[in-house]
């Protein structure tokens, strides 16, 4: 019985940490969206170097969020099929 309790605790802890990570990535992407006009204005002065760096950061955050969403969807499909098996 203790083993089940530890597994449940680790599952809840993992779920909590995944949600915190997901929320942090969304907040980071929102922050990048808010500062984008300032980056675009500053890119005129430095020949677009900051804009290129900004685009890479924004794309990497977008793909990370997309990866997390797809991972959760696949996990839920797997759990659903495992429960019906």
TrEMBL record:
It comes from the Bacteria. The chain crosses the membrane at residues 26-45, 57-79. Keywords: Membrane, Transmembrane, Transmembrane helix. The keyword Transmembrane applies. This is Uncharacterized protein. It comes from Metamycoplasma alkalescens.
């Amino acid at each position: 019985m203790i083993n089940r309790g530890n597994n449940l605790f680790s599952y809840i802890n993992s779920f909590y940490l995944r949600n915190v990570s997901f929320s942090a990535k969304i907040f980071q992407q929102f922050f990048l969206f808010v500062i984008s006009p300032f980056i675009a204005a500053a890119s005129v002065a430095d020949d677009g170097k900051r804009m290129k760096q900004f685009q890479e950061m924004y794309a990497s955050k977008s793909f990370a969020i997309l990866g997390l969403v797809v991972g959760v969807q696949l996990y839920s499909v797997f759990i659903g099929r495992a429960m019906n098996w």
